[in-house]
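Proteins fold reproducibly. Next comes an illustrative record:
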Amino acid sequence: MKTIDFDYCLPAELIAQTPIEPRDHSRLMIVNRNNETIEHRHFYDIEQYLKPGDVLIFNDSRVIPARLKGRRQDTGGKVELLLLHPVVPQQWECLAKPGRSLIPGTKLVLGGNNEGKNIQAEIIGKGENGCRTVYLSSETMLDQIGNIPLPPYIHTALEDSERYQTVYACNKGSAAAPTAGLHFTQQLLDRIKAKGVTLLFTTLHIGLDTFQPVHEEDPSKHRIHKEYGCLTTGIAHKINQARAEGRRIIAVGTTSVRLAEQAAQCGNGNGVSPFQGWANLFILPGYTFKAIDVLITNFHLPRSTLLMLVSAFAGKELVKKAYQEAILEHYRFYSFGDAMLIL
């Protein structure tokens, strides 16, 4: 298995630049692993593929205004930080521009020129993959001076920043949205719940690896970036009870998969355990899924860990076939793109 096995060519015009309105009017590809068939529907049709007793696992992480602009105190040169995740209170791991010159000890002023509306900051550490650790004098001002960070392949300004949040997002901490959940409206969730489907909410704060392709020729040598997550005792119990009763566990997005499977790894064969901490599970083809039966996901970047996870779940050849058909049928790709239901 090589990283190039997860590559594909995508016409640039298929990279969705703006979200579809309403949210649930995006397209939905139904991929059946048993007979390898593909159907084309709309996301609002998804309730037809759900049945009473099913369990949907969501990631309720909320994207923070993690893109901060400012200047160096010494030279006045412009700087930009992308906060990835907190290390301890007031200390964050981040990406920084210009990276090479922002060495430990560099002091920054983030925000505007108004002294009452900025944050004093200092680079205090240097990590791998261009990361820095930054100390912030205050975290209460982030909502006022920061901006929601859109992925680098989106070049159109977003009129409403809430459109890059799921309707159930509540726990602040992500640098990117759990995009499979962007398709759900509150009305659709209400209809699904009324059908007898259980809705469970977990949290995994999305960080650096979402933005980076795998560069190693052998993907197993790639070091996946850790992300902080929480799956409570009550949620673990409900998942285990559903599995014991033969009911389907359906993950909304690859982040929900990673967290549930990380918790299952901690269960040592005894189901899903409660989990709180850093998730670093890298799922590649050959992995045996212990928690998830069905997956709702978007169409992912080539050579990405997300595409590798989907290929592990559905099989490389079937995923390759689905992506080829999505391109032929002019599906919209990536964060604001269309979705796939893998049965």
Q: What stands out?
A: The mean pLDDT is 94.
